[in-house]
Amino acid sequence: MTAEAIESGPLAGGGASDTDGDRPLRIALLTYKGNPFCGGQGVYVRHLGRELARLGHSVEVIGAQPYPVLDEGVPLTELPSLDLYRHPDPFRTPGRGEYRDWIDLAEVATMWTGGFPEPLTFSLRARRHLLSRRGEFDVVHDNQTLGYGLLGDLGAPLVTTIHHPITVDRRLDLDAAESVRRRLSVRRWYGFTRMQKRVARRLPSVLTVSGSSQQEITEHLGVRRDRIRVVHIGADTDLWAPDPSVAEVPGRIVTTSSADVPLKGLVHLVEALAKLRTENPAAHLVVVGKRAEDGPVAQAIERYGLGDAVEFVKGISDAELVDLVRSAQVSCVPSLYEGFSLPAAEAMATGTPLVATTGGAIPEVTGPDGETCLAVPPGDAGALAAALGRLLGDRELRARLGEAGRARVLANFTWARAALGTVELYRQSIAARGARR
Prior knowledge:
This protein is α/β, with parallel strands linked by helices and about 425 residues long. The chain contains 16 helices and 13 strands. It has helices at about 5, 40-55, 100-110, 120-130, 165-175, 180-190, 190-200, 210-220, 265-275, 295-305, 320-325, 340-350, 360-365, 380-390, 395-410, 415-435, and strands spanning about 25-30, 60-65, 75-80, 140-145, 160, 205-210, 230, 250-255, 285-290, 310-315, 330-335, 355, 375. The strands form two sheets. Strands 3-2-1-4-5-6-7 form a seven-stranded parallel β-sheet. A six-stranded parallel β-sheet has the order 10-9-8-11-12-13, sandwiched between helices.
């Protein structure tokens, strides 16, 4: 499906309107992991929740650790897990006094045996919580938990966002595994994806963020295409905007990488930087994310002697992050696959020219090569180096792509449009539940 077809569709985030005759909705927005500084789930909950509230709806986020950061007017109800992966002691064993019920025991037992328990255990806690508050919500919106606890009657119709199937991450991690032991470990960790497949097939209403993700959900999870609706997400274009007063740093390339995993393609960007610096010694990389002490990226930085040319930053404010992207001559999305790519939309919104791969839904966001970005094949360090070098050396091209990129985001990818499209799906789900009853 083309980006143009999706953008003109009935649920693309711009074709719906929240008319005066429609009453405000009471929305429970679930998120089993809400960190706004690592990964897209926390960003999604924060910005969608804010825009739903601006439309006049009552939004309550129900989440577990790490808890999301929410804007004013959107309350958070904490539904705590045992927080087994918290820093600085991930994979910890809780003290005896921390256990509250059998769900806690299941959470620890799954971790001890190498699995990832949070989607299942959060869904069970969420079910218990929602049933205790039956009648308080018009709709329940799950943010990719896909746990068994969300099946059956929750007291309100269920809409589920699937950003992309985690089976894609599983496949890429298995492909990168270098030993039988590592492959077994990866299979066990991603054991929860079997549950997510079973749950997804039984969901009445699935929302996703791109045409590419819609296709992957059908192929990987077995969900019928006619049950999946595309509502594009986007950037906060008031925050992510050009600012000529921010000085451009020569040679600066900025990327966002939430984890050192094959999916994000950061190792290929590091390799591209090594190639690029043979011709442009001023080229350097700033990574928004945590520096991994070991792993493919750390090894590549050491192998190519790039310790002084790659900087990692984390925990900075929104304003500092936007200024960092504004200061770059080039922004880069090197991912092998993305279900959407918020970093691409945000960088384009600032007018910073973009080099991005064609992995997954990225082209739906970034637009045509040479018009709104420079596009390269995923996993190709040589192509990345060539595109980065071309942009760093051409001021006029940077200005043209930066201007066209912001115009594309303003026209297609804003949170206000996303909220309108999401509310339309809420109302369809509510009407369908009423008809069945």
